[in-house]
Fold each of these.
Amino acid sequence: MKTATARQRGVEHDIVQLPQVGEIAPYYEPQGNEIAVFEAAYKRRLPVMLKGPTGCGKTRFLEHMAFVLKRPLVTVSCHEDLTSSDLVGRFLLEGAETVWQDGPLTRAVKAGAICYLDEIVEARTDSTVVIHSLTDHRRKLTIEKKGQEIDAHEDFMLVISYNPGYQTVLKDLKPSTKQRFIGINFDFPNEEIERKILVSEVPGLSHETAQQLVAAGRKARLLKDHGLEEATSTRALVYAAAMIGAGLDAVAACQVAMVNPITDDPELAEALMEIVNAHFAV
Amino acid sequence: MSSPAIRTLLDAIREAGATHGELLFEIEAVLPVIRPHGEAVTLDWINACRTLFDFDREAGKAFARGSREAEKVSEVVLPWTRQALQIMRWRHSWPAIEGFMKNLPRAFGSLGHAGEERWAGIGMAWCARSVDCGCAYFTTPVLDLSGRGGGIAAIEQLNTPAEELYETRKLQLATFLPGAIRVRNLLGAQAVLPWAMRGADIMQSGRTRGEAYFRLESEESLALLLENMQGYKLADRNRLLGILVEVWFGENMELKESTWSPEKGRPFMEMDGQTLYFPAVMGNREEAILSVLHAAGHMRHGTFDRVAMRQMFADAKLEFPNEGTVSWAPIFMRFGEDAMRFQLIFDMCEDLRVESRLQKQIPNYFQRLITNARSTLARHPETAAYYDLALATAEDALRAARGEEVRDARFAPLYERSATLADAHLIAGEIFAENTLPRVTDAEAFAAAFLPGRGPNSTRVAHPQDNPDENSQSQPGAEQENQPDEQGEDENESPSESESGDQQDGGEKQESAGYGETSGSAKRSENRPDGQQTGRGPADKGVPYPEWDYRESRYKKNWSWVQEKRLGESNTTETNRLMKQYSNALKRLKKAIQSQKPTRMSPKVRQMDGDEIDLNAVVEYVTEKISGRSPIPAIYRRREMRQREISVILLADMSTSIMQHLPEGGGRLVDRIRAGVLLFAEGMEEVGDNYAIAGFCSKYRDNVSYYNIKDFDEAYNDDVRSQIGGMSGRLATRMGAAIRHATKHFERVESRRRLLLLLSDGRPEDYDDGGDRRYLHEDTRMAVKEAVAKGVHPFCITVDTMANQYLPQIFGAGHYLVLDHINSLPNKLPEIYLKLRR
């Protein structure tokens, strides 16, 4: 059986894709009531905001939910130069004609997909106001340039994610935007769940190694206050486990997956390696 | 039976005079061991005694007396008899002969016959150079000269630089030798010559200073030693150690540098229940990290738990002080001469107990300790038994942790989670009573008994702790009601208590209970008076500036003198503490700066003009145009280069008043100022503007100090950081002179805008202003005017709420800011700058 994340590779396919029959759901290990909350929000088609540190499973959660709810998922990764036309659409030249091309948000609105605006704070606030009319009772998308309005498909749902760690005076969502969402808080899963995740993500990983990885990860997260922008994520642990699974020595795997990527500070790196060594080097 | 010839000789001595009776007594006592070597030898020997005695009585007696041992070890008589007679050739050489005789047995024993001859030869060569040097040589114990197991080669190694320095610099051996031996033992033979060369240089500049250097007592010689010490420099890794403690123990323990210096022997980590003290250098990284974890383990796992300590004192039938600090000394003093033996056993037991709990917290702790301990081969002969037992029991504890069977059941209770300090003490008592471990008297042997990573646990006066952590210290049902609530008591400084030999640096530690200035590195520099701070020598009067006298409406020429100095103090601990305390503020600040950097390198899109075409904008423009609209032609991209267009000096008022405690509590004003300056500097690094940091204070017109903490072209490094941590208040505020000096600093800087940011807490004042406030106000106002005329923009930030009364006149409206809340200073300072620079 194919998983939803393992579709046919190397082939173009449209961004709006319904989960295929015969696929199994992307793996997700619930940490709390987030599934119930999401399902309830979906029932009422309320927009949802996923908050939590990088690599704790927000995107995976949404993939899982989209599959369970049998909705296509349209993901837009937001960045600084994202404009509203990148979301809504723009006129393109075709010969001497101009042709309107829908942006991903418009496509999702029309198709009744779940539109996921990842790391929305990265986008400039002026480009994110286009979602306002979509996120309240109106459920409408205004296409200014065409002078049109679209009423959203009844299954359409908007989800945004944001990482409170990035939060700054200047980079924060406008309160008027924030308060339109149902907020679900994510954090790194507890030890037991994290072990389960490692074992299911990396088949063949020994229980003991998973245990050591999780313990080391926990300790590494304590360093967050010492200048790490981002703590060691569950994803980093999964990567480390994968590297171990691929035959790399445990200490080296941890170094390349959990230490090198997250810091350039030699002292922090040394401290992280101390943790790794304590758990793995005998 | 003595032969007639011998008897005649002895009779001759007897008749030589009354004083010769003493000699005769010594000779007759030793004669039986010399006799077997034959009559000729005996006669020679007696003659030598007599000759030496006639040369110098003490020398003769010492020779006779020392002969017994010398004969016993060497099994010959004539060679050393001849050597002694040779030494006699030099006048006043009797101390050399005495020393020679005393060292003979060891010389034969450790160097062999050939070695002994060489050893004596070197000594005689020294006597030939100068009798004093010869005496110094022979009175130095052979084992010290050769180092442990170094043999004659080690003596030669030491001798070569000594000879060289004597020939070239006339450096006396007595000055050189004691220090050189220690340097050799610490750093190896190759380090001796450079060390001594430097010493000879210093010696030329001043005798006392040079002697202090050679005695390893002066700062410069200790610093040189530290610099050249092999091993892991903990002082540089303060941050890492702090992080590690926090990672494994989940709390922030205070880490300070101890007063250890290389000549004090093996470095150990120390702790007192409140603070961890690390030596500047340790053998290697493993040992250093194990030590830190180990010491923190003691702090966390009940070595300083009040209940357990009380129980231990009760078991020892000693009185436990109800409050204040507790000296460990009585625990060991009970054993008198055997104190060291008990202390070693007790430390071992307590270490095992604590480490068994550490093992649960830090995976593979024991494995690491054991691996490291095994790889250390050198053991001190006297305490090898302790080392091996410690290693064996550590392996046992590891077995216990793995749930395997232990081999030595005596220690087994210590591996239990419920064991306390008092249990360790009881078990130590039992093992002590078994009397199987050798007695220890030598401090070096004592120090060598510890596994790398461990160390004596009770070197410091303890601060008993009342807050048993989640792993409760006391056994169920025991003594719980005895636990008085004395939280906070620990912070009181208490009078010195008597301490045993091992509790070195006693007086010093008592003061460490006080917070603030007295961290390791700060302490060191505070011990040095002003001499250190004067950058260019005491003769330097500094730079003169005019001062405005409003009463006469004229400048007084060359009136105020500014001396530019480096800030002597630095305080890394404080800096680290502040960095941590404000880490979130700092992160926010950096993010804010990053996002508002007006001259970011990434292109600005959709500009009305610029040097590149913005393709997206063009397509949009064209499409909209074609579809019949009239779009705005903002189709360019523009990159702006970062340019150094602004430079700034942050000039902090460092007068006494900043040392005041804040009315609302929570520390002193200086803490906020340090934090503010630190955040400012960090922010500036992010902004990329050219900046300098300075502080000033004054005492009288001719003594204005301008502390250059960071100059414009200087890198912002740990040194600067720790200087900021070491900022403190002294003296008064002659602001005008400081402003003039800062203005002068700007002259060297190329930039369009120059900002002088003054950080102050009060009005300009000095000791010699005669109570006329207006005088310095007016002068400061003039200084500000002068600065403006030179293109410098002064801006004053003050925390003095009364400042509205005088700042407008001095700086002019809009050129100052009064912070109504002192606590906001750290966050505000960089923000204000960012606003100003727009």
Amino acid sequence: MSPTAQAAGNAATLDGATKQRTKYRVRDLNFYYGKHHALKSIDIDVYEHEITALIGPSGCGKSSFLRTLNRMNEVLADTRCTGSLLLDDEEIYDRRVDVVELRKRVGMVFQKPNPFPKSIYENIAYGPRIHGVRRRTELDEIVERSLRGAALWEEVKDVLKKSAFDLSGGQQQRLCIARALAVEPEVVLMDEPCSALDPISTFRIEELMEELKQRYTIVLVTHNMYQASRVSQRTGFFLMGELVEVGATEDLFERPKDKRTDDYIRGRFG
Amino acid sequence: MRMMRRLYQLETEVATQPSLVAGAPKVASLRHTFEQQLAALQDDILRMGSYVSQMLVVAMQAVSKQDPRMSFHVIEMDDTADFMDLQIEHTCLRLLALQQPMSRDLRVIGTAFKVITDLERIGDYAVDIAKTARRLASEPYLIPLTDLDRMATATEWMVRECIHAYVEHDLDLVTQVVARDDEVDDCYDRLFTDLLDRMERDRSLIRQGTWILGIARFLERIADHAVNVAERVHYVETGELKQLHQDRPNNDHRP
């Protein structure tokens, strides 16, 4: 990260009356797909109960970065990660870390809604069940709480036995969010959660994010910088594997420090 | 009407030159049309700025030459200034809604939005001065206009140069405009005390003195609006919103 980006990050931690606790502290993170150096010395802090948005053109590394946050990149062959990535002051790339436990703490929602080919109820109950919840009443409770948390309960409470595929795209995405919430994560990673949705469903998910941030920490990757400006408190701009600039969202969109950020958000790339 | 024509021209220019939209050269911006519209917005601000600046100059000539025709001319000009204000506001709203500007573009448009209000007010004060000038036209001046002339020169300069600073992105000029407001304020304080003295000594001066005091007050307000414009230029160029001119504590006695 450039010195200006560093300064922007620091300024954001200092100003504002509600100083947030740091959830992730990332320092000098490098990531490689084979020989390809996909993330170059990333430094960023993610604060608790905030939405941190990551923007940048396709292939800039924002999704790769998101996947390092719950070690999702490891499922790909021939990848390598160096540097420090602390979650609550714990190194998540430490050998002693249980990846299943990590991914329970750090849930993920993807671009295209990907419900399991099961009933609505089973989609939610699946996670808690493999984590050892067996009692029916307890599962019922979790299903209701998760669906309420994802603002879907009122729409599906009478059809829980129906297949998840009967839901609309927007409802399926909220179901996937509910599924992520069912195991009571601390962080929710969202990779372009609205890019396959119509504007109404998009606004509903954005509203939902606003509510979710009271209880969780959210990291959002989005192509849509207007979405970033609408929902996030902090925004980071990625370009060619580099985190060019990170800071308070309003500062980044009103007075970016780096010329490359300025060119990108003003649509001035030639 | 000129404004309408300008807008219309712009739209036809864009429509009839597809190369501007589709086949723009590789190195140029992806938002060529938008950039042109922003440039046109700056042109419009410049046009409105020089227009109200002209209103002020003519209004002060109406005062010094005691010529009611000039007063009438300024009052007539006000309709056009108001129309420009509305047109530019409309352009700003359209650009905000359709282009969702960011960064400097956002600051340019947000600033245009604010600046036209200041310019429109300057035009209104010029009209107030012109109306006062009509009342002053009937008898010869019994009070020397030296301080008022000095105030007018400084204020006219501030109005002209704050617009220049906006168009030329000139931060040095911003500093100079802000600094010159002190001169206007000093002049006003001096003129105020002096006129009060004269009117106390000679009651027959009260009528004329009060009108002149009114004009001085209008000039002082105009200068403050020029400072507002200068502050906006500072914001466009630096991204920092702040009051550049500090009110001095010794101004308390003023009306």
